[in-house]
Amino acid sequence: MNNMVIAIDGPAGAGKSTIAKIVSNKLDINYIDTGAMYRAITYKAIRDGIDINDEEALIEMAKKTQIDFKDNNIYLDNEIVNEEIRTLSVSGNVSKVAQIKEIREIMVELQRKMGKRYSVIMDGRDIGSYVFKDANLKFYLTAGINERARRRYVELKAKGHKINLDDIVNDIKNRDDIDSKRSFAPLIKADDAVEIDTTSKNIEEVVSDIMEYIK
Ligand code: C5P
């Protein structure tokens, strides 16, 4: 592998995307939010009235869907969907869609292509354990459930979403449960990943821990 690949995995709300974005800027490499890819597929299914339990229909739709990243925007069939994919309705259904093997295979192929084309820091659930088993560096970020929910609440509230904390706690617990129990490429810490508990660390501390490993 010529390009550098840094994998950041962990449960929902552990701070992966915030940290990955900052580190990507420091290293001047691309940041790929793989959760956004599964969210985009889920958003499209809901928008187009496809039954979330109809696996065949979801797979057919995914095969005909184009997902791209450009300038920190996520494109679904050439349309920017940065905000649309963050609603609780998408969050509440995405883990169900993401457990479908065929859909994961389509997303993983795209992710591997990106890693071949340029250096990346990629965050998700299975990046170090499945997508890039030979990544140059792997991190596994965790944090207590209350802290993870609080962070997500503050983030969504700031963006103007109408939400309450209990719904966020339930969403996170539900997704972690499905993500870690699915049979194909579940959420798991790769044996060679560095685990960082971010519960009582601020963003700068986590970034500085990670930069130390990178050096
Ligand atoms: O990272 P984020 O919380 O936005 O991810 C949304 C969902 O997408 C996760 O809960 C999980 O179901 C799915 N996902 C996945 N594999 C990845 C990234 C995300 O299954 N690599």
From TrEMBL:
CDD domains: CMPK (cd02020). It catalyses: CMP + ATP = CDP + ADP; dCMP + ATP = dCDP + ADP. The keyword Cytoplasm applies. Residues 6-215 form the Cytidylate kinase domain. GO terms for molecular function: kinase activity. The keyword Endoplasmic reticulum does not apply. Gene3D superfamilies: P-loop containing nucleotide triphosphate hydrolases. Keywords: ATP-binding, Cytoplasm, Kinase, Nucleotide-binding, Transferase. ATP binds at residues 10-18. Its EC number is 2.7.4.25. It comes from the Bacteria. It is found in: Cytoplasm. Pfam families: Cytidylate_kin. SUPFAM superfamilies: P-loop containing nucleoside triphosphate hydrolases. Belongs to the cytidylate kinase family. Type 1 subfamily. NCBIfam families: cmk. This is Cytidylate kinase. It comes from Tepidibacter hydrothermalis. The lineage of its organism: Bacteria, Bacillati, Bacillota, Clostridia, Peptostreptococcales.
